[in-house]
Specification:
Number of strands: 60
Shape: globular
Number of domains: 2
CATH architecture of the largest domain: 3 Solenoid
Strand content: 35-45%
Oligomer: single chain
CATH class of the largest domain: Mainly Beta
Length: 652
C-alpha cells in the first residue's frame, strides 16, 4: 500500500500541476478546471515548478499579456497550452501590451496550441510571442509550436528614425521575436524550436532573432552602433514547417546564431507594408546557417525584395533545395558591406519568374562563394539582370553548372565585371546576353520537362539534351539533389541529378488563354489572372463546374496540377478523377484538414497497374479506385470556387 501511494506521489510530481484559465469565466476562480482563473495576471503569483501546465480553454478568448518567468527542467518543461473540447478552436490570447505572450529568461518551456493576436495602429512596437533574455545567461530549450498568430500591428511603415529603421534590430515588432539583451551577463539561447506555426498579417517581422551580444572582428562596422556587447552566439535554433502569409516586412531572419537550421517553411507575400528593404528568408552576423526546402513567393518590392539573402558578417551559410518564384526584387541578395561574406554555398535551388535581379551583390567583398546547380526559369515579359555587381571589391565566387532559361519577350542581362567571379559550364538559353568572361557555356535548349510551371518536377531534364552528364565537379558537393537523387549518379546541370525523363504527354498552363482541349459543364470555366498575383493566368471554376479532358496516357503515368480552393465545402467537396482506359481513381477533398484554402498547392497522382497514390502539398491523400475506363481527368468544383493551373502528365 505504501509503495502504491509513493508511486502515485511520484507520478503527480513528474506530471506537475495544471492551472486552468477561461477568459469567459464570471469570477476569478481558483485555477481548477471547474473553477478556472479568468485573468492571466495571476500567473505571476503562482509558484510554478517543472512539469506544471498553464492551460487556456479552447473556444474562449482572454486578454493578454501572458507572461512566464519560471523555468521547467529538461525532463519536465513548463507547458502553456489548451484544454477542453478538441473540436473547439484554439484559445485566443489578445493583446495586452507590447507582447501578447512573453517568455522572459525562462528555460525548458513549451508554448503550443494557441491563437495569438496583438492589434494596433502601426505606431509602436508590438509582438505576438517574445522570447527574451536580459542578462539571463544561457536560456535553454524553448519550443513554440502549432500557434496561429495574426494581426500583430507593430511599426509600419518602417521609416528611419535616428539612423535605424524601426521595427527590427532591438525591440523588434512581429509575430515571433527572439532577443538576447543586456550588457553585464552574457546572454544567449540554446535549443529554440519554432515549428508548425501559421502566421498571417503581421508587422514588421514574421520570425526574427536579434542579439545585443554581437560584437566581433567579423562584424560590419555599422552594426557597432546597433549592438554593444561582445559576441556570444546562440545555438541550436530550429525553424521548421511554419507558414507565413502577408508579412509587412521580412519573413524569417536569423541573426546572432551558430548552426541555425531553417527548413520546410513557406512564405507567401513579404514587404507588403514596410516601404523599406526586406527579404523573404535571410541571415546576418551568423555562422554555419543552413536553409533547406523553403518556398518563398510574392515579395512586393525592389528595395531588396529577394526571396533569400546571405547578408553581412556571415560565414559557412548554405542555401540548398529551396524554391523561389514571382518575387519583384528577384532571387538572391548578397550584402557583405565592409567585411567579406565568406564561404557561402547556394546550390540545388529553383527560381521561377523572379524579377529585376537574379543575384544582386551589394557593396563589399565575397570570399569562397559557390553558386552552382541551380535551375532558373525566366518568363515572358521579365528582363532581370542575372548578376548585378554594385561593388568594386573583389568577388571570389564560382558560378557553375546552373541552368538559366529565358522565354518570350524581354531579355536577361549582366552587370558584372569582376575577373574573380568565375562563370563556368552553365546553360544559357533564350534571349540572354552573353557574358564576356563565361567559359564552357551550353547554349542549346536545356531540355526542361515543362518550363514555366511552378512545380519543381516540371524541371526534370528530358532524355537526349546537352545538360545531362556534363557538369564540372564541385569540391564539397552535396550527396543528393533537390529530389533526393544521388549526385554521383548523373552529373547534370541544374538542380536535378536523375536520369533523363520522358516528354510530358501534354501541358496546360493557360497563359495563352487556350482551354480548347478541355470541356466544361454544369457551370463555367474562365481564364483569369493568377489569384496569388503571380505571373500568368489560371482557370477559375465556378461552384459545381465539371472540367475535363482526355488523359491521353497508358499506365503507368504521373499527373501533376496546382489547385487553389477558395473556401471549405464539406457537403459538396472538390474532387479530382484521374484515369486511363484501364484504371481510374478519385481524390475527394472533403476533409478540410487535408488542404488549405486561399493558396496554391500541388496535387500529384501516381497511377500504375499495381497501385495508386495521391498527395496534396506533400501530404498523402486517399486515392479511391473507381469503375471508369473513359480515360479522363475530371475536376469537379463542388461547392467551392476553384482555380487550377500548371497541369501536366508524364508516362513513366
Amino acid at each position: 500500500m505504501k509503495s502504491s501511494l509513493l508511486l502515485l506521489a511520484l507520478v503527480r510530481l513528474c506530471s506537475g500541476a495544471s492551472y486552468f484559465f477561461d477568459g469567459a469565466a464570471n469570477n476569478a476562480g481558483e485555477g481548477s478546471e471547474s473553477q478556472p482563473y479568468n485573468n492571466l495576471a495571476v500567473i505571476s503569483s503562482l509558484k510554478l515548478q517543472p512539469g506544471d501546465k498553464i492551460l487556456l480553454k479552447r473556444g474562449s478568448s482572454i486578454v493578454g499579456p501572458l507572461v512566464l518567468t519560471s523555468s521547467g527542467s529538461t525532463s519536465a518543461p513548463i507547458n502553456i497550452g489548451a484544454y477542453g473540447n478538441a473540436e473547439q478552436p484554439k484559445p485566443v490570447v489578445v493583446g495586452g501590451g507590447l507582447s501578447t505572450v512573453l517568455i522572459q529568461g525562462a528555460s525548458h518551456v513549451v508554448v503550443e496550441d494557441l491563437e495569438v493576436t496583438n492589434p494596433g495602429d502601426n505606431k509602436s512596437a508590438l509582438r505576438g510571442v517574445y522570447i527574451y533574455g536580459y542578462d539571463s545567461g544561457n536560456v535553454k530549450d524553448v519550443t513554440v509550436q502549432n500557434l496561429y498568430i495574426h494581426d500583430v500591428r507593430g511599426y509600419m511603415p518602417s521609416t528611419t528614425t535616428g539612423g535605424a529603421p524601426v521595427g527590427k534590430y532591438a525591440n523588434a515588432s512581429g509575430a515571433i521575436v527572439v532577443e538576447a539583451g543586456g550588457s553585464t551577463t552574457p546572454t544567449y539561447f540554446t535549443g529554440i524550436n519554432i515549428q508548425d506555426n501559421e502566421i498571417r498579417s503581421v508587422d514588421r517581422q514574421g520570425i526574427y532573432t536579434w542579439s545585443n551580444w554581437c560584437q566581433r572582428p567579423e562584424l560590419a562596422a555599422f552594426w557597432f552602433t546597433l549592438c554593444t556587447a561582445p559576441w556570444y552566439a546562440s545555438s541550436g535554433l530550429l525553424v521548421q514547417r511554419n507558414r507565413l502569409y502577408d508579412v509587412g516586412g521580412d519573413g524569417i531572419v536569423v541573426k546572432g546564431h551558430e548552426g541555425a537550421i531553417v527548413k520546410d517553411n513557406l512564405v507567401v507575400g513579404f514587404n507588403k507594408r514596410s516601404k523599406s528593404p526586406n527579404a523573404g528568408v535571410w541571415t546576418a552576423n551568423s555562422i554555419n546557417s543552413l536553409f533547406q526546402y523553403n518556398t518563398v513567393s510574392g515579395g512586393t518590392t525592389t528595395s531588396d525584395g529577394m526571396s533569400y539573402d546571405v547578408d553581412h558578417s556571415t560565414s559557412g551559410t548554405v542555401f540548398e533545395y529551396n524554391v523561389s518564384h514571382d518575387n519583384e526584387g528577384g532571387f538572391f541578395l548578397l550584402c557583405p558591406y565592409d567585411k567579406p561574406t565568406t564561404n557561402f554555398t547556394i546550390r540545388y535551388n529553383l527560381s521561377v519568374n523572379d524579377k529585376t535581379r537574379i543575384f544582386q551583390i551589394c557593396d563589399g567583398a565575397l570570399t569562397g562563394g559557390k553558386i552552382y546547380k541551380n535551375t532558373i526559369q525566366i518568363g515572358s515579359g521579365i528582363s532581370p539582370v542575372i548578376v548585378t555587381e554594385d561593388t568594386s571589391a573583389s568577388l571570389d565566387v564560382l558560378f557553375a553548372d546552373n541552368i538559366i532559361r529565358k522565354e518570350g519577350s524581354g531579355r536577361a542581362t549582366w552587370k558584372l565585371q569582376d575577373e574573380y567571379f568565375s562563370v563556368v559550364k552553365n546553360s544559357f538559353y533564350g534571349p540572354i546576353d552573353t557574358y564576356f568572361n563565361a567559359t564552357g557555356s551550353v547554349t542549346e535548349a536545356p531540355g526542361l520537362a515543362a518550363p514555366g510551371l511552378r512545380d519543381p518536377k516540371a524541371y526534370y531534364l528530358l532524355n537526349g539534351y546537352p545538360t545531362l552528364d556534363v557538369a564540372v565537379d564541385i569540391v564539397g558537393d552535396a550527396s543528393v539533389d533537390f529530389f533526393n537523387n544521388p549526385t554521383t549518379g548523373h552529373k547534370n546541370l541544374g538542380f536535378y541529378s536523375g536520369t533523363g525523363t520522358n516528354i510530358p504527354i501534354w501541358i496546360s498552363k493557360f497563359d495563352d488563354s487556350d482551354i480548347s482541349a478541355w470541356k466544361s459543364s454544369s457551370g463555367s470555366a474562365t481564364i483569369v489572372p493568377d489569384p496569388a498575383g503571380d505571373l500568368g493566368n489560371s482557370v477559375q471554376l465556378a461552384p459545381s463546374t465539371v472540367f475535363s479532358r482526355p488523359i491521353g496516357a497508358s499506365l503507368p503515368f504521373r499527373f501533376n496540377a496546382r489547385i487553389w480552393i477558395d473556401a471549405v465545402s464539406t457537403s459538396k467537396p472538390v474532387s479530382v478523377r484521374v484515369g486511363s482506359t484501364s484504371k481510374a481513381i478519385d481524390v475527394v477533398l472533403g476533409n478540410p484538414e487535408t488542404y488549405r484554402t486561399g493558396e496554391w498547392q500541388i496535387l500529384e497522382v501516381l497511377l500504375t497497374s499495381s497501385g495508386q497514390s495521391a498527395t496534396l502539398g506533400g501530404t498523402a491523400l486517399t486515392a479511391v479506385p473507381v469503375a471508369d475506363n473513359a480515360g479522363l481527368v475530371i475536376f469537379t468544383a463542388g461547392g467551392s470556387k476553384v482555380h487550377i493551373d500548371d497541369i501536366f502528365t508524364v508516362s513513366l
